[in-house]
Specification:
Elements: H1 12-25, E1 33-41, E2 49-57, E3 61-67, H2 76-86, E4 89-94, H3 99-105, E5 111-117, E6 122-128, H4 138-142, H5 147-156, H6 167-177, H7 180-209, H8 232-254
Parallel strand pairs: 3-4, 4-5
Antiparallel strand pairs: 1-2, 2-3, 5-6
Helix pairs in contact: 5-6
C-alpha cells in the first residue's frame, strides 16, 4: 500500500516514510534495521551529538540526511564531515531547490538524491551516486557501542579487562586485541540489537496498514522500552570530565593568593 499525499507540503515525517519505502523497493532493507534519529557522537561540539535523520544497518552503516524545502543548508558541511567518519556511505536527500548547492558542498563520495512530488507520491532521483567506503577506524566504529557492550565483547575474547577502564582506554585496548572486522561486526550488530524491536514494530505496522504517517511513531524512542545506551556512558564521562575542570577552576579562583611581603 502506497503513501497518499494529501498536500504539496512535505513534512520531514512524510519524506522519511517515502524514503523508507524507496529503500525497501531498492533492496536496502534486506536483513537490515532502520533507525530513526540516530545520535552520532561529536566530541567537537559541547552538545556532544548530532542526530542523523535515518540510518540503516544492513551489514554496512548507511546514513541519510534529509533537507526538505523548509530546511536550510547552514549545518550541512559540518554534518557531512562528521557523518563520513561514522558511516560507510552518506546520503543527502533533498528538495530540488537545494540539489545544485548540495552538490557543491558534498564530496564525490556523498550520494545526493533529489525528491519530487508527482501528485501521488514522492519520486527519488539520484543526482550523484557516491560510493561506499568501509570505516576502518576503531574509535569511529566504537562510538556506536556503549562501555558495557565493549567490556562484554572483550571478555568473550578472554581478554583480562578491568571494569574501571575509561572509554578511551577501552578504545585503545580494542584496537590492540580485536581486528577491524571484529570491531565493525560489534558496532553493526550492537546497533541492530538495540533498535531491532522498534524496526520490527514499524515493519509489522506497515505490513498491516501500509505506509501511513501513524506507522512512523514505532521507530521513535517513546514507542519502545528499549533504552538507547549507545552514547549515555560516553556522555557521562565527558560531563564528569568537564565538571572536574570547572570545579578545579572554581577552587583555583577561590584559593587565597599568598603574597610575599615587600620589605623595600
Amino acid at each position: 500500500m502506497k503513501i497518499q499525499l494529501n498536500s504539496m507540503r512535505h513534512t520531514e515525517s512524510t519524506i522519511k516514510l517515502h524514503l523508507i519505502e524507496w529503500l525497501e523497493e531498492n533492496g536496502y532493507l534486506n536483513d537490515a534495521v532502520v533507525i530513526n534519529e540516530l545520535p552520532v557522537a561529536d566530541r567537537s561540539r559541547t552538545s556532544f551529538a548530532r542526530r542523523i535523520d535515518i540510518a540503516v544497518a544492513n551489514g554496512k552503516l548507511l546514513g541519510f540526511e534529509i533537507k526538505s524545502e523548509y530546511d536550510s543548508l547552514d549545518r550541512l558541511e559540518g554534518q557531512l564531515k562528521l557523518y563520513h567518519k561514522r558511516f560507510d556511505k552518506v546520503f543527502v536527500v533533498c528538495a530540488p531547490k537545494f540539489t545544485s548547492k548540495v552538490l557543491e558542498i558534498a564530496s564525490p563520495s556523498t550520494s545526493v538524491i533529489e525528491f519530487e512530488n508527482d501528485g501521488q507520491k514522492l519520486r527519488f532521483k539520484v543526482a550523484q551516486k557516491g560510493k561506499i567506503t568501509l570505516k576502518k577506524s576503531a574509535n569511529d566504529l566504537l562510538s556506536f557501542v556503549n562501555q558495557k557492550e565493549i567490556l562484554s565483547k572483550l571478555k568473550q575474547k578472554k581478554v583480562n579487562v578491568k571494569n574501571s577502564l575509561s572509554r578511551s582506554e577501552l578504545y585503545e585496548l580494542c584496537s590492540n586485541v580485536l581486528s577491524i572486522k571484529d570491531i565493525r561486526t560489534l558496532s553493526i550488530e550492537t546497533l541492530k540489537q538495540n533498535y531491532r524491536s522498534r524496526h520490527n514494530a514499524f515493519m509489522k505496522s506497515i505490513k498491516n496498514n501500509g505506509y501511513k504517517p501513524s506507522c512512523l511513531h514505532h521507530l521513535s524512542a517513546s514507542s519502545s522500552k528499549t533504552q538507547d545506551n549507545t552514547l549515555t556512558n560516553a556522555k557521562k564521562e565527558d560531563d564528569m570530565f568537564i565538571a572536574n575542570i570547572l570545579a578545579q577552576s572554581t577552587q583555583n579562583k577561590m584559593r587565597p593568593i599568598k603574597r610575599t611581603p615587600n620589605f623595600k
